[in-house]
Design a protein that fits this description.
Layout: H1 4-27, H2 34-50, E1 74-76, E2 86-87, H3 90-108, E3 115-121, E4 124-131, E5 134-140, E6 146-148, H4 151-154, E7 170-177, H5 180-192, H6 201-209, H7 214-219, E8 223-232, H8 240-250, E9 259-261, H9 264-277, E10 285-292, H10 295-301, E11 311-315, E12 320-332, E13 337-349, E14 352-358, H11 362-368, E15 371-372, E16 375-379, E17 387-391, E18 401-402, E19 418-420, E20 427-429, H12 435-446, H13 458-466, H14 481-485, H15 492-505, E21 507-509, H16 510-516, H17 524-534, H18 537-541, H19 545-549, H20 556-567, H21 569-579, E22 583-585, E23 601-605, H22 613-622, E24 626-628, E25 637-640, H23 646-654, E26 657-660, H24 661-667
Helix pairs in contact: 1-2, 16-17
Length: 670
């Protein structure tokens, strides 16, 4: 029997999942993402596998989600509608393959089943019934037994045939979806009249189908893919591949991207392919569906209490998952700012295992009301830094501990005093020269956006500090071969490679030098603005506040920070030592004419698949444009890759032109 704590966790999971599934499937409300809900379901499923005795009759694993809305006519399905079990990793899909083979062995001996892979469209399931070739009724899945009659709305979708190629009786299943383009158009229309925007195409499609007025559904420009035959008056096709062709012959729209997989390795290869390219389709895809191809095997395998044994949904790595907060600790940045970091129960999100997430600052902790022990929704989208986006307070047991900023942090050095920065949400070390802070400055200094010393990562920097070979930036460029060979685990070839990289780094571009100095509030984009405006280091060092604030993107606080850095006695000494060992390469000023992007400011957001982000930035600058890290009214274009996040929404709000990656590549002539 499970421990009392496990039982309590199970009950919390069960209650939360039922709540969110009811909101999602019955009322088309999405308080947490489907990926986060899948994560809760997966945790519950794992508990049930480990402790079968724990399974309750009302567990979400024992039923198909959803109930008909009271204001629609109820329809009892002639064929029960099932939902799929989920797999999230290659190991889990191999386990599915093993189960299939074990189950078939008794009837057919050793078999090598083939699978059909189909894209899992993120939309609303629909069941279409035809009599003598004419559409009779269209119903939602509902609870799998009873659905909602939405025939009038489905008839407005042009891809749904009102009559078939032959006068047969048939029941088919499909997915209603809305294209991303149509979602954008719909949201623009709703924004004009002050209506709430739809978060995703699935919600917009479901909302359209569940309108009592068919005219509203017609305006949604919905579409349908049909993928399964539930019942037919004709002979059933012998395979799933033949079934899809059968549907197409009858006049149904079938997604063209299905594939026959001879082995489970072929299934995984198909999943890997669409995991990378699936988000470029006009419809949203959250995974693939894997089905046994041979119908005789399908019939032999049958169903469990809630799902078919012959098919499974193989989900893409979630961009949102749930996990628990094990601790909250403060991390010292290179400018002395203290960032609270949540230490998490390790969890896989967007294809990688995450055990930490930034909480940004004290105000963010208060806004989220995140506590040690909380169950949280973790997101990793666009930029790769994981973020806690929500606390599931209904999962609390009463043992969670609120976090309070301490008055002292020993790692800040000295007595460890910390202070809140006036007018900001951030705290910082009073001592500006603590050892952890200096280490992070060095990590930044040698990094790819600064001096870009290949092979000098954090471990090498730590070793050089511990051996007292470096104590400032300039010391890096005085290292000798015999110094490095004396260090543990430093071989001759690696030492030669490192010295070669250091020699190459002695000539540095001006904006990279500015970025490398760790001036508070000055990042990579601001460094390029400063370098373009002042041209030489002496010009920048002697700049007054008025001339700094004339630069678009440099405000009062940043100007003060720049002046303070260059007038500080220790910083002057550090810079003088560094300049004795390096040469600054000043890029020639780009003229306003002759460069296709001259005067244009770009913001990049999300993941670019065709061109690395750093390369895209360099291309923009080469063509005379500028790159900013934040969206404002002065931004000309936002380039949105996969999972663009808040910058995309801000661009939409401000009316800034949004380019897809393909649009951007065409613009720059690539």
């Amino acid at each position: 029997m499970p421990h009392k704590t496990t039982q309590a966790r199970y009950e919390k999971l069960k209650t939360a999942i039922n709540h969110y599934r009811r909101l999602y499937h019955v009322y088309d409300k999405e308080e947490i993402s489907q990926a986060a809900l899948d994560s809760l379901k997966h945790e519950l499923s794992e508990l049930e596998k480990q402790y079968p005795a724990i399974i309750a009759p009302d567990s979400p694993s024992q039923r198909v989600a959803g109930e008909p809305l009271p204001f629609f006519k109820k329809v009892r399905h002639k064929v029960t509608q099932w939902s799929f079990n989920d797999a999230f990793t290659p190991d889990e899909i191999r386990e599915f393959d093993s189960r299939v083979k074990r189950f078939l062995k008794d009837s057919y001996g050793e078999v090598k089943p083939e699978y059909v892979c189909e894209l899992k469209i993120d939309g609303l399931k629909i069941v279409l019934e035809y009599e003598k070739g004419l559409l009779k009724i269209a119903a939602t899945r509902g609870d799998g037994v009873v659905g909602e009659d939405v025939t009038s709305n489905i008839r407005t979708i042009e891809s749904v045939p009102l009559s078939l190629a032959r006068p047969i009786d048939i029941i088919v299943e499909g997915e209603v979806w809305m294209s991303s383009k149509n979602l954008e158009m719909l949201n623009r229309e709703r924004e004009k009249v002050g209506e709430q925007l739809f978060a995703n195409p699935r919600n917009a499609a479901a909302g359209g189908i569940r309108q009592l007025n068919p005219a509203i559904a017609a305006k949604r420009r919905l579409d349908v893919f049909v993928y399964d035959v539930a019942q037919t008056s004709e002979k059933f096709p012998a395979t799933q591949i033949e079934e899809l062709e059968y549907l197409r012959e009858l006049g149904f729209k079938v997604n063209p991207h299905h594939s026959l997989a001879k082995t489970i390795d072929d299934v995984i290869a198909y999943w890997e392919k669409w995991k990378k390219s699936g988000r470029h389709q006009e419809y949203w895809i959250d995974g693939i569906v894997v089905k046994i191809n041979e119908r005789k095997y399908e019939e032999a395998l049958g169903y469990t209490g809630k799902a078919p044994r012959f098919a499974i949904a193989f989900k893409f790595p979630a961009e949102q998952v749930t996990t628990t907060v094990e601790d909250i600790v403060l991390q010292i940045g290179r400018t002395g700012v203290l960032t609270p970091v949540a230490h998490l129960q390790p969890v896989s999100v967007a294809g990688s295992v995450v055990s930490r997430a930034t909480l940004h600052n004290e105000d963010e902790i208060k806004r989220l009301d995140v506590r040690v022990g909380d169950t949280v929704v973790l997101q990793k989208a666009g930029d790769v830094i994981p973020d806690i986006v929500r606390v599931l307070t209904e999962m609390r047991t009463g043992k969670e501990k609120p976090y309070k900023f301490p008055s002292h942090v020993p790692a800040c050095g000295g007595v460890g005093l910390i202070e809140r920065i006036p007018g900001q949400a951030a705290w910082r070390c009073v001592n500006k020269n603590s050892y952890p802070q200096f280490k992070r400055k060095l990590y930044h200094f040698v990094g790819k956006h600064c001096f870009d010393i290949d092979g000098m990562g954090p471990k090498i920097v730590d070793a050089l500090l511990e051996s007292e070979l470096i104590s400032s930036y300039g010391d890096i460029f005085t290292l000798k071969r015999w110094d490095l060979l004396a260090l543990p685990r430093f071989a001759e070839k690696s030492v030669d490679n490192l010295l070669s990289a250091i020699e190459k780094a002695k000539t540095v571009e001006f904006p990279r030098l500015i970025n490398a100095l760790s001036i508070s509030h000055v990042g990579e984009e601001t460094a390029y603005l400063l370098a373009e405006h002042f041209r030489t280091l002496d010009d920048l060092k002697n700049a007054d506040k008025e001339s700094l604030e004339r630069i678009d993107g440099v405000g009062d606080i940043m100007a003060d920070s720049i002046i303070t850095w260059f007038t500080d006695k220790e910083n002057k000494k550090t810079l003088h030592h560094l300049l004795a060992h390096i040469k600054i390469r000043n890029a020639s000023r780009l003229q306003a004419t002759g460069h296709k992007l001259s005067g244009k400011t770009f913001v990049l957001t999300g993941t670019l698949s065709k061109m690395p982000r750093d390369e895209a930035k360099e291309k923009i600058r080469t063509l005379g444009g500028g790159v900013s890290s934040a969206v404002s009214k002065s931004t000309d274009y936002v380039v949105a890759g996969e999972n663009p996040g808040s910058k995309y929404e801000e661009a939409r709000r401000l009316g800034v032109s949004v380019l897809t990656e393909a649009d951007f590549l065409r613009m720059i002539g690539t």
